[in-house]
Design goal:
2 strands, transmembrane helix, PLAC_motif_containing
């Protein structure tokens, strides 16, 4: 609201306006380096061995990537989110990728159960009746199961590579970081995926002042300022 001086203000007249001193209304932000990475690709132990970001990036880089996406308002595949499509819940990407991981794990469990049963059946038939015509069918099922497992593995691996690659490119684009060499993003993601995720996670957070949070939408505590 605006308060007017009683009687109005005339031309040339000086007046003062008090500025509220409410610190809560002053939004603080973290300044991120522009034009270069904050640290090197191999600075993974910069904050010690017990840092949550280090371990999450090692054991589940796709979930760590989801947290960086939430910091930068990207969607779950690393694309810029239009203003009209931004979700008020920052944990959306984390939940989507967690669902994909759980589906992958469930498929693997089903595969192993089926593989064990088929293996036991083959072993039993080879001992009791090696000429049983059903033996060939079971071996064909084993072959199909192995091919299906390979397809699932490669599909999941390709998804992880694409998501991390697009997120790294989005970080470089946001902070005007030039490409080190031709296809550096793809090479970094394929050859040293964990170091790549750790690097753009450190770049988009102030871990010098604030701790890392493992299971949260952004991987940052509530008191961490917004990212510029």
């Amino acid at each position: 609201s605006i308060m007017c001086v009683l009687g109005g203000i005339e031309k040339g007249q000086h007046f003062s306006v008090p500025i509220p001193s409410d610190d809560a209304a002053i939004a603080t932000r973290v300044s991120i380096p522009v034009g270069h990475w904050k640290d090197s690709l191999i600075s993974c132990f910069k904050f010690g061995l017990c840092h949550a970001w280090l371990w999450l990036s090692c054991y589940c880089p796709i979930l760590a990537t989801s947290q960086v996406q939430a910091r930068l308002n990207l969607n779950f595949v690393g694309s810029e989110n239009p203003g009209s499509h931004q979700s008020s819940w920052k944990g959306q990407n984390f939940a989507i990728n967690m669902g994909i991981i759980m589906t992958y794990v469930l498929l693997y469990v089903v595969y192993f159960i089926k593989a064990i049963r088929l293996g036991a059946a083959v072993h039993s038939m080879e001992e009791e009746s090696p000429d049983d015509p059903r033996l060939s069918d079971i071996r064909n099922q084993q072959l199909f199961l192995q091919i299906l497992r390979g397809v699932i593995d490669w599909t999941f691996w390709l998804y992880v590579v694409i998501v991390i690659l697009r997120t790294r490119k989005a970080v470089r684009r946001r902070y005007a970081i030039p490409e080190e060499f031709c296809c550096s993003d793809l090479i970094c993601v394929c050859c040293c995926r964990w170091f790549t995720v750790m690097q753009f996670g450190r770049h988009t957070a102030d871990y010098d002042k604030y701790r890392s949070v493992c299971c949260s939408a952004t991987g940052l505590p509530d008191q961490h300022p917004d990212i510029v």
